[in-house]
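Quarterly update from the structural biology core.
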Amino acid sequence: MSDLLPLFPLPNVVLFPNVFLPLHIFEPRYREMVADAVASDRLIGMVLLRPGWNDDYEGRPPVYPVGCSGVLTHVERLSDGRYDIVLRGLERFRVLEEEHSKSYRRAIVEPLREPPPASEDRQIIRNCRSKLEAMLVPAVEKAGADARMPAAMSDEDLVNALAQYLDLEPLEKQALLEQRGLRSRAQSLVELLEMKMLASKVPRGSSVAH
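Predicted structure, tokenized:
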């Protein structure tokens, strides 16, 4: 990553490593950000805005400190100056300090690299993958799509893609991004989906005794 990473804060988007994210850029400050990124290393850091961002959106409202950098793999500049772009997630980072000389936000960041899973973790991750596939197959088949997960897709790419693309709350995705390794992220995703499935089976108006 460069010394100062451009930050793109949004209230409902979380990027994960090696997952693709299409975005439409229309605000002048973020048009400048994309133009600058294209002219340099093509890197942009996605960060999630904290609740209450509405009060100061035009300024610099607080963001969660852990985000994910992405490289611009597609850039289309439209006739009116807007952009259609595609980012591919690279690696997680932690915001250390922001810099305010540009119209958009930039920060000094600390990369949060994830080492390959230890041998004892690989079977746990494989079991999580099997559980995820079993939970998602009925919903995918109901939608009329092919329920088979790509066998060639690595465990890491599958877990990260599901974390990004599933219909989860932004804060749930942020919590998954902040997990310190693939094993923790996979286990947390399984637990989250199991809770959602359980909640969907509880009849409305019923209460659970504690």
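The chain has a mean pLDDT of 88.
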